[in-house]
Amino acid sequence: MSRWLLPVWNSFSNGICRIERVSQKEKKVQYFKGKSVYKGVTMGPVVVYKKQGEQVKRKAIENPEAEILRLRQALEMSKLQLDALYEKAVTEVGEASAAIFEVHKMMLEDEDYLEAAINMIRTECVNAEYAVTMTGNNFSQMFSSMADEYMKARAADVIDVSSRLARNLCGQREQGTFMERPSVIVADDLSPSETVQLDKKKILAFVTVHGSTNSHTAILARMMNIPALVSTDVQMEQLQDGMIAIVDGFEGTMILNPDASTCAKAQKRIREEEEKVALLQELKGKDSVTSDGHKVMLYANIGNVGDIGYVLENDAEGIGLFRSEFLYLGREDAPSEEEQFEAYKQAARMMAGKKVIIRTLDIGADKQADYLGLQQEENPALGYRAIRICLKQPDIFKTQLRALLRAAFYGNISIMYPMIISTSEVQRIQAMIEDVRQELEEQGIQYKVPEQGIMIETPAAVMISDKLAPMVDFFSIGTNDLTQYTLAIDRQNAKLDDFYDPHHESILRMIRMVVENGHRHGKWVGICGELGADAGLTEEFVRMGVDELSVAPSMILKLRKIIRETRFKA
Ligand code: PEP
Ligand code: MG
């Protein structure tokens, strides 16, 4: 072994866990501007989000010893690779430069490293990929906090070896992400499928360099009740994991490395916001009824069963939009009938008799699942998405309809269909529902054909809402897409955020028209797009006769307060 390697090796094998962190030098405060998609303030450590493919997903495992065996095999494979790399480097760049691969190999042989990873597998019952990645991260942090420049530089090597091990364990097939503690996620961009894979309990805020305020990622941030900025002028290279950031969704700012007085101010803001939320708590258990006695149904939007905690916490009266497509994202195959049945049944059970409106698969455009083999399109928002996929690929749709009809037997479920443009689509859906019903009947499986409605989110559906109304049980207006299609503005295009105006008179007129047509046929009409949560319009919506508002759970109590202060009859 070269003599210069000895200090590294000794430090490593003497147990770097015992090396103390040196305090980091005072860093410069930096300010960044972004577009806010959720108003809130938070402060915490940054996690720089790396794109899928570089991430390792945490998985619960049942047999730790089998995982440890896998780890040992991957370790041997990694060592062989490093030997080969060393030999190649010696001939190509000389022994001194090639020595780094020897260091990597020694790191892999280090007992503390291996023991830490094995302990994690045994005590937390997690997969080996995750355990080696986390162990590598911990060790790397310890190296980077050392005063010695040489040792500091080894931080990257630990990450490098851990990634090699993880790659050998999973062949880079696994995707996902991990976070140890609640953090501010900073990413170049986040797709909805990446967002759904994040552990929501560990996200303090999202900050993205790209992204539009109307994207599904922005909607998810609102649903999760966390401050979020998109189109932020930060450069990813300026960031490191662990830097402290303040994200202020009111101001649309991110402050990196805040000094003590900025931190104190942020903490004061956080407390004030908490107090405001606490004040709204007294509205829990009260009815969403105007001062002159007119009832409005105040429901919540969710992406999966895990969000029902927020729904109950905020005392929503039901679920007005369960975006079922999130069950289909961030995975390698479609959810089975059984899996969907369990999810929908659980949602109905958790809501204990309150209405749960499940929207059928609205995939395509920004929500992609590789296994569906959807092709790239020039105009995805105007393309093969939502009900169009379901009608063209009836196997996928029927699996979902079977799960829905079966789950409806166990609770107050309604079904809602997205992106409708014609009466013939509704007829085709009705025929498929009848097929599924007959099938379940013949198989002796318990089911119920529940209330069914459609989303009104295309100008076509608005204009024929008088014809659609007699065919369905309710309308739910999707203002996000309705704005996109009416104003001819791609909701994903951040450059057009300033033009995307859901307050446009055309949209408000359309909402009024849909309400009138729905009511004329005795059908209730709701709004489940983001505009429904616009507190500045609540009074107007109530007076228009909108029967239901379905909004992010965090907005429920705020809107209840406004509804209770509104007079229905002016
Ligand atoms: C809408 O378009 O308003 C809607 C609620 O659906 P999504 O945002 O999921 O497209
Ligand atoms: Mg929509």
Task: Describe the structure in your own words.
The chain is α/β, with parallel strands linked by helices and 570 residues long. It contains 20 helices and 16 strands. An 8-stranded mixed beta sheet has the order 1-8-7-3-4-5-6-2. An 8-stranded parallel barrel has the order 9-10-11-12-13-14-15-16, surrounded by 4 helices. It is globular. 43% of the residues are buried. Residues 1-25 and 172-177 have low confidence and may be disordered. Bound molecules: phosphoenolpyruvate and magnesium ion. Magnesium ion is lined by residues 418, 457, 478, 480-481.
How many angstroms separate the termini?
87 Å
Strand order of the largest sheet: 1-8-7-3-4-5-6-2
The helicity comes to: 40-55%
- Largest sheet features: 8 strands, mixed
> In total, how many domains does the architecture comprise?
3
CATH class of the largest domain: Alpha Beta
The mean pLDDT is: 87
What is the structural class? alpha/beta
Give the distinct bound molecules. Answer: phosphoenolpyruvate, magnesium ion
Low-confidence stretches: 1-25, 172-177
Q: What value does the Rg take, in angstroms?
A: 27 Å
What is the overall silhouette?
Answer: globular
Architecture of the largest domain, according to CATH? Alpha-Beta Barrel
Proportion of strand residues: 5-15%
Question: Do you know the CATH topology of the largest domain?
Answer: TIM Barrel
